[in-house]
Design a protein that fits this description.
Helix content of chain B: under 10%
Shape of chain B: elongated
Shape of chain A: flat
Mean pLDDT of chain B: 84
CATH topology of the domain at 28-75 and 86-126 in chain B: Immunoglobulin-like
Order of helices and strands of chain A: HHEEEEEEEE
Largest sheet of chain A: 4 strands, antiparallel
Order of helices and strands of chain B: EEEEEEEEEE
Structural class of chain A: alpha+beta
Mean pLDDT of chain A: 81
Strand order of the largest sheet of chain A: 1-2-8-7
Oligomer: heterodimer
Distance between the termini of chain B: 47 Å
Helix content of chain A: 10-25%
Number of helices of chain A: 2
Number of strands of chain A: 8
CATH class of the domain at 28-75 and 86-126 in chain B: Mainly Beta
Largest sheet of chain B: 5 strands, mixed
Largest interface: A-B, 57 and 47 residues
Radius of gyration of chain B: 19 Å
Chain lengths: 153, 136
């Protein structure tokens, strides 16, 4: 009783110390991730190209950096809940007799499949390649869209 | 003929760099991957700068130091809430020290599909001259 009144806890709350500890641990993890440099919650599949996936109520948006790629060298296919991205990045030959100081850019084939967190409408997929950044807009399937539920009374 | 042999492309994390000037705007800088090659007449630099619009790219050459800077809005084109994130968008920055004397008036820059192609013609006197070895 003394404890409750001291800390101002409402009398009906059940004191659960581990819940607070859990919350604190999650916060700490988040902070450590943020400080370790490479951003938070970064999980890379280790397959080219790296992608970022976002969503809103209607669509999923997949983005990838593909500098120097032409739309015709890119092949995108979708199934019920996945998207496959393949193609070839071509680095043109720079004539004979050129001498290189740096050669860091790489060409080659790639092929990747990304599983989306919900079903999609395969008929409504738009892909844009602008300034070397690919953006694919993928409409969610009707069943996968969040529904607003009105509470009747 | 395309130079690409059909090897698999490997993931390469973008390298973050520190900008020499202290920044007042949040956001990270990455170093673009480049190819630099030369012929007798000119030097050419190719830099991968995905997401940089032509008007947001600055190229500066002074005292034989070439500075490339590509600006990008961190949330450019990003819509919705993040589900997962494998890469970060950021500005690009890289400096080079050029050993050749460049003809400033004839520099040509093109930005296409996120790749910068910068042509730096050498001034006439810097083009190599064949030295004939005399024999006695």
């Amino acid at each position: 009783m003394i404890y409750r009144s001291m800390y101002g806890l409402p009398a009906w709350s059940v004191y659960r110390p581990y819940r607070d500890l859990d919350r604190m641990r999650r916060e700490m993890d988040r902070l450590f991730d943020a400080f370790s440099g490479q951003g938070e919650g970064r999980v890379s599949a280790g397959v080219y190209p790296l992608v970022n996936l976002t969503e809103d109520q209607e669509n999923f948006y997949l983005r990838a950096e593909l500098p120097g790629m032409k739309a015709e060298d890119l092949d995108i296919q979708v199934t019920a809940n996945s998207l496959s991205l393949s193609g070839e990045r071509k680095i043109a030959q720079e004539g004979n007799g050129v001498k290189y100081h740096r050669r860091e850019r790489e060409g080659g084939r790639f092929s990747r499949v990304v599983t989306l967190p919900g079903d999609i409408n395969a008929e409504k997929v738009d892909a844009d390649l602008v300034n070397g950044v690919l953006t694919v807009k993928i409409a969610k399937a009707e069943a996968a869209k969040p529904k607003q539920i009105t509470v009747r009374h | 003929m395309a130079a690409t042999d059909s090897k698999e492309l490997k993931v390469r994390e973008k390298q973050e760099v520190a900008h020499p000037a202290e920044q007042t705007r949040p956001g990270v800088y990455f170093t673009p991957t480049v190819d630099i090659f030369e012929t007798d007449k000119e030097m050419t630099l190719l830099a991968d700068m995905p997401g940089v619009k032509p008007d947001k790219l600055s190229i500066d050459l002074r005292d034989n130091t070439l500075t490339l800077e590509g600006d990008i809005a961190p949330t450019d084109g990003q819509k919705g809430e993040s589900i997962y994130e494998e890469y970060t968008s950021g500005r690009f920055y890289r400096q080079f020290s050029l050993s050749e004397v460049i003809d400033q008036a004839k520099i040509d820059a093109q930005l296409q599909d996120g790749v910068l192609r910068l042509t730096l013609p050498k001034v006439e006197k810097a083009t190599p001259r064949k030295i004939a070895v005399r024999t006695r």
